[in-house]
Every structure is written in structure tokens, then in C-alpha cells.
Amino acid sequence: MNQQQFQRDAYLARICDQNVDIFDDKYHWNFQPEDLPLDPRAEFAHCKRTFLEIGFGHGEVLEELIPRHPDTGFIAIERRPPRVRKCLKRMQRVGEQRAKLMRVNLELLRRRLFVPGSFDDILINHPDPWPKSRHGHHRLFQAETIDWLADILIAGGIVEVASDHTEYFFTILHLFETHPQFESLMPPPCYTDQPIPNRPTSRFEIHKRRSGLTVRVMRFGKK
């Protein structure tokens, strides 16, 4: 075992134990290393579809989506404990047993987390752009990330990404456009910078648009 793998295994064991202690809640998916990879479809066996939100922030988009889609089980990932706590309160208000939150660092665990074909839809709103060049390796979106998204999506599954960071958005767009397993579901230029009717919008995005920043959205389907 190399040093990097050792560090990742140590992180996984530590974060699993911490989560059990600080998120004793029915809406948080507490798991142990030996449980990986997780199977969301088995977790929501009573649902026809499964949905993943990566980086749910304060959870307002998730809170809006759950009542709209009564046949869907929702998994949502965030790395910051205060945001998880806030979103857990939202899930308690929603009161439906079709959502599980997860506190993990995908930079370390993504390849091990879910079985192939786990999701019908994936939503990623405003991933951290890590704008300094020396921090680029921390970005969620790398070439291997698109491979991972293709792996955990079913054929015909959809991934949506929104960002207000111009350079990062077009970097992500290029990764999807050049990947053999994805095709754009939007006409050229394969994105929109206009609000999409009935699309749930986070407070973060509303603030960015009101500040005059351009928010772009892309949607790609797995072939």
C-alpha cells in the first residue's frame, strides 16, 4: 500500500467514526469502510429513481426538489459539518424518508463510494473553483471525475452543472464535450446563461445573478 492510499484509508476510517458521533440522525447516511461501495438503489428500494446532489450548500434546492419528485430517492453530499447540520433541519421539516445526507470529501473517496449505475440524475451547483493555479488539484472536476460520473450514472442518466466562474465553467464544459460517454442535452453552445423555468435556484445563485454575475448551466446525458 502506497502512502497516498494509506492516508485515504485513514481519512475514511476517521470520517466514518466522526460522522456516527456528530450526525446521529435518520437523514444522515452513516456507513463504515467495509460497507463501500454503497448502493443507493438498495437504500431506496421503494423508489423508482435515484438522484445525487454534490455540494448541497444550505439544502434549499434539495428541500424544493424532494416534494416535486415523490418516486425519487435523494442522496446529497457536502464536506462542511455546519452545512450538513443546517440541511438536516431542512430534511426534518420536509419529513419524508427519501433523503440521505453524507459528509465526505469526494477528492479522497469518489472512486470508492458508489456502485456503478447508482443514479438517474446528478446535480452539481457552483463547485468550488479553487481559482489559484497552485490549488487546481483540489478542484472537483478533473478528467477522472467525468469518468466517475459516467460510471455512477445509468445509460440515459443526466448530469447538470451550474457555475458563475467563467474559466472553470468552460473547463468543465470541455471535459464533458470531449468525453465519449456524454452528449449535450442543450443546443450549441451547449449551455445557457438564462434562468431556466421551474429550475430550483439556490440562494447563492440568486445572489450572484442579482450582483450582475453570469451564471451558466450545462446538461449532459450519458449515452
Structural summary, described in words:
- The protein is α/β, with parallel strands linked by helices and 223 residues long.
- Helices cover 38% and strands 21% of the residues.
- It has a 7-stranded mixed beta sheet, with helices on both faces.
- Helix 4 links the parallel strand 2 (72-78) and strand 3.
- Helix 3 runs parallel beside helix 4.
Number of β-strand runs: 7
Indicate the CATH architecture: 3-Layer(aba) Sandwich
**Mean pLDDT over the residues:** 93
Unreliable spans are none
CATH topology-level name = Rossmann fold
Radius of gyration: 17 Å
Question: What does the overall shape look like?
Answer: globular
- Please give the largest β-sheet: 7 strands, mixed
What is the ordering of alpha helices and beta strands?
HHEHEHEHEHEHEHE
Quickly count the helices.
8
How much strand? Answer: 15-25%
Helical amount among residues, as a percent range?
Answer: 25-40%
Structural class: alpha/beta
CATH H level, superfamily name: Vaccinia Virus protein VP39
Number of domains: 1
The spatial strand order of the largest sheet comes to 3-2-1-4-5-7-6
By CATH reckoning, the class would read: Alpha Beta
Distance between the termini: 35 Å
Describe, in short, the structure shown.
This protein is α/β, with parallel strands linked by helices.
Features:
seven-stranded mixed beta sheet, 8 helices, 21% strand, 223 residues, Rossmann fold, alpha/beta, single chain, 7 strands
